[in-house]
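QUALITY CONTROL LOG
STEP: pairwise intake check
CHECKER ROLE: data steward
CRITERIA: each record must contain a sequence immediately followed by its structure tokens, with no blank fields

ENTRY 1 OF 2
RESULT FIELD BELOW
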Amino acid sequence: MKIQNKNSGIVYSTESGKLCPECHELAAKCSCRKKQRPPADDGIVRLMRETKGRKGKGVTLIAGVPLNGEALKKLATTLKQKCGSGGSIKEGIIEIQGDHRDTLERELTGLGYIVKQAGG
């Protein structure tokens, strides 16, 4: 079975799953959607609050930190301690449980990063 959108063609197929409406590749392998995200190395650290996929519980996402590996883990640990909250690192994005955008903005600005609050 294939589901088709009149403007963009096939968007779902039971044989392969979700397809990107623009490049018609599998959603997991789509490269055009990834290009729409802001560049990771533009020098701006973005703070976002998100509840999607977390049963209504919010987390603060920190994206665009120009660190990786152990340095990113160390920063995440420091920020979690400042907020008194748990969290994790997924795909280079730090997740802190709860809404701590103001606290994190002060801490990251104090560390010399350019910080913007993104999203709602």
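ENTRY 2 OF 2
RESULT FIELD BELOW
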Amino acid sequence: MTAASGSEGEGTQVSPRRLSRLVLAFAATLIGLSTLSLLYVGRIASEEADQQAAVTERTLFVNALKDRQSLIARDQLSVSRWDRSVKYITLKFREAFIEEEFVGSLWFDFGHDRTFLFDPGGEIVMSAHEDRVDFTRRTVDPAGDLALIAKRAVERHNANRIAIAGGYGQKQVTSSEVGRIAEFAIAEIDGEPMIATAMAVVPDDEEVALPDGAPFIVISAKPIDGDLVRDLNSQLDFADLTFSSGAGGKVPLISASGRALGSFDWKGAAPGSHIWQVVVPVSILLSSLLALASLFIVHHIRRLSLRLEESEQRNRALALRDPLSGLANRLSFGHALEAAAEKAQGSRFAVIAGDLDRFKAINDSWGHAAGDLVIRTVAARLTEVVGTSGLVGRIGGDEFVILVDAFSDRVRLSLLASQIMTAVGQPITLDNGITTDVGISLGIAIAPDDAAGANAIMATADRALYASKDGGRGRACFAGDEGAESHTHAHGASHAA
């Protein structure tokens, strides 16, 4: 029995060499599985990161293009929502008014390259190229871009039309809500792709009213050219942003009638390559250091998670800041305004809407880089003047807003407005050594005295701003004082060099 048992025991023993081979095979299997798993995870993560980066970039581009269309629409609103326009376009077609005041303002003040007027019957009664106006009446293809854009603008107007004394008007909207009444589209005009906006000609103070039926529609357009691409990229900072007439780019350009007019393309970010730079060295280390592999992976996963979290935090911060000026953007300012409006009964506040004077002349004379410098300089001066008294935001090209929550009395608000106009009006030295300056027009509304609710108080401040600009610019107007003679003026401000 003893001998037999010994022989059986020796038969079940594993030799050291065989055990070494088994351990090595097991270790090699674990190393291989770990390496393959890590490489697989790295591939998935890199592809997902690249895809997410592409989606984010496309969203940013589309929003930037919409911002440019919104800016055109806000410019357009200054002449299309006007009693005089209704008087001399809708009620009595006066060519001199259209040429000198209507088209003249859209071209000389805002640089709208093309302007069209559609009558209620859907015919073009006026077309302008820069300041050259043609009053030849012509019928357009109902399936063409311009006709479709005009038709959709009529539908938007009808959705916002209201009855007023003597006829019809349109609901008031703030400049940030202009998309409710304006039609944004891409159009091919004279063989050239352009961004276009269209809206109805409506009264503002309701001294006149629209008759029943379709309104006159004004369409403004700017070409999609190198200047527009550079303007867009000043906000986006994409690598090699271009527009071409061919397809295949990241953002295809489709006209109002559904035709492909070209596409925008750029060299996209590739965060996946950075992931591979981490994954591959880790995989090599795992092949030789199985014992330390798990700790090493945990360490790098934590680093990747922290980087991802930091990236998300930066993205959230960027989403609330205007990239050019560093001020609160429209989203951030809107949140602050809504929060202030919710507690306005217990804590009064004021909103100051501002619009730069003579800013377009600087862009036209010295380029967008000079304009960007002016925007940053004005932003810094506004931040310094307002200080801890409130929040300064930028909601458009040269449009600034201020939420004042430290005080709401007219005396201190008037003093603050004077300080703002004086500070903004100080000389600015451009990169080329030329000294220039800009002015600013202000509209002030106090909540809840002038209006309640975020949209209402913003709209009230905008109306006061329009009154300030109509009164000669370079001044501040309180809501409710639009018809008064006295306004706050800047002292010592010079004119553009």
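INTAKE CHECK: passed for both entries
DESCRIPTIVE NOTE, ENTRY 2: The chain has a mean pLDDT of 86.
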